[in-house]
TrEMBL record:
Protein name, per record: Putative transposase
Location of the Transposase IS200-like domain: 4-119
SMART domains linked to this entry: Y1_Tnp (SM01321)
Signal sequence annotation: none
Matching Pfam families: Y1_Tnp
A single BP term in Gene Ontology: DNA transposition
GO molecular function: DNA binding; transposase activity
Length: 119
């Protein structure tokens, strides 16, 4: 069986209680971590950006990958690696040992050009 697909998802992760946690060095490391996780999950990161309390990730993924599982994997791995590399972030982990909120946003994009999505 042969399958051709173009599936894109826009994933947004926010910090726990929307605390302003991330600096440029944290965001740079998060981008590296998320690219590695995506590669291991047979997905392709297309675009990454973020601010002090959230990140956006645009990914191209195959039909065999559930966006919710990918999102949970991205949050889990990035949380663990950030804790290892930046122990100073622990002050932002109120009553939990993770920087992320328990929820996330995942939206499908239907093939719109990236320039349109950015607007």
């Amino acid at each position: 069986m042969h399958c051709v697909f173009v599936l894109h998802a826009h994933l947004v992760f926010v910090t726990k209680y929307r605390h302003k946690v991330f600096t440029d060095r944290h965001l740079t490391r998060l981008e590296d971590i998320m690219q590695t996780v995506c590669a291991n999950a047979d997905t392709e990161p297309v675009n990454f950006n973020g601010d002090d309390n959230h990140v956006h990730l645009l990914v191209n993924f195959p039909p065999s990958v559930a966006p919710s599982k990918l999102a949970n994997n991205l949050k889990g791995v990035s949380s663990r690696r950030l804790r290892q590399q930046f122990p100073d972030l622990v002050r932002h982990y109120y009553r939990a040992n993770r920087p992320w909120s328990g929820s996330h946003f995942a939206g499908s994009l239907g093939g719109a050009p990236l320039t349109v999505l950015r607007q």
